Amino acid sequence: MIDRPAEQFAFETYPDLANRALAGSVIWASDESFAERENLIMPHEPAFDPNEFGNKGKVYDGWETRRRRHDDIGGHDSAIVRLGVPGLVRGIVVDTAWFKGNYPTHIAVWGLTCDEYLPAEQIAALPDSEWTQLVPVTPAQGHTRHPFEIAADSAQGTQRFTHIKLDMIPDGGIARLRIHGVPAPDPRFLGGTVDLAATENGAHVTSCSNMFYSSPNQILGLGRAMNMGGGWENARRRTEGNDQVTVKLAAEGVIRHVEIDTSYFVFNSPGDVQLTGITEAGEEIELVGKTRALPDTRHRFLVDSEEPVVSVRADVYPDGGISRLRVWGDLSENGMAEIEKRWGSATEK
C-alpha cells in the first residue's frame, strides 16, 4: 500500500551502510513498547495494513515508543544502530512513513567510531562528547522521508563511523533509517585469499554436539543468513559443558582472520565463543581465545598463527546459535596440491 511518491536523493546512489542485508543491527533502544526497533533497518519499504492490530494496538512497520507522560520518564527516545559496514557517511534518510498522528516533533542523528565489541548498554551510556552530531535537532513531519546530505569535505564527511544514534524527540514512531555512504574496510582484514570453511570450496561439518533446531552445515553456506532459521541453533543446555561444531576445511591452510556471526540470534546467542584449529597431526592451535560474544553481531578476529590447519572447532558457551562461520586464509602447499588433485580427478573422468 503506497500513497506517496518515491522521491530519490542524489546521495542514495551510495550503499546503505546500516542495511540489514549488510549485517547492520539495531543494538539498543530506550523503548520499543509498540513496535520493534529492528524494523528501522529492514531493506524493504515500509508497509501498512489499516486493519492489522496486535496485543499492543495498531501494528506498524517501524519503531514506535510509548507516550511520555510523567516527569520520571522525561527526555526523549533514542535507538543505536551498529553499521553493517563502517564507512564515511554521505547522506541520511529518516523516514516516518505511515506515522501520521504519532510521529515525533523533532529528530537528531549522531555518529560514533568504536571498533571494539562493547555491550550495547555500555555504548548507550557513552556521553554526548563521544558522539559526533551529524544532524542537529530538526523538526519532523509525519509520513515523510527526511533527507540530510553530509558534505564529503566536512568534518563529519571525512570521519569513519561504526555506530549511529537516532534521537526521536520526545517519542512516537519512525519507520526507517538509511545511512548512505562510502564503505571504509579495515585493511587488516583484506588479507587471506579464500574462505576455507565455505561449503562451495569443499568444507563440511564432521561433528556437532547438538543440532536440535537446525543443521550446522548452514553456517558454511553462501551469502548471509536471511533469518535465525538460516544458521545453526542448538537446544538449551541443561547439563555441564558446552556445545561445539567441528568443520573439515576445504584443504590445509594458514588462517589469517575469521568471522563468527550471530546475526538474528538476539536472545539465544552464545555467552562466549572460541575457535580452535586442528593440524593434520591432530595438534590443537588456538585461533581465537574464549571471547565474550554479542547478540546479533558479525564478530571478526585477526589470527596470529603461521601453523597450517586442516579443521577448526567452534565452541559456544554454554550454548547458543550462530548464523555463519568464515575462516579466511591461504592454502598451504599441501592444501593447494589437495585441491588440484581433487579438481584433476574430477575432470579426468
Automatic annotation (TrEMBL):
It comes from Corynebacterium anserum. The lineage of its organism: Bacteria, Bacillati, Actinomycetota, Actinomycetes, Mycobacteriales. Belongs to the allantoicase family. This is Probable allantoicase. The keyword Hydrolase applies. Its EC number is 3.5.3.4. One of its GO terms (biological process) is allantoin catabolic process. Pathway: Nitrogen metabolism; (S)-allantoin degradation; (S)-ureidoglycolate from allantoate (aminidohydrolase route): step 1/1. Coiled coil: none annotated.
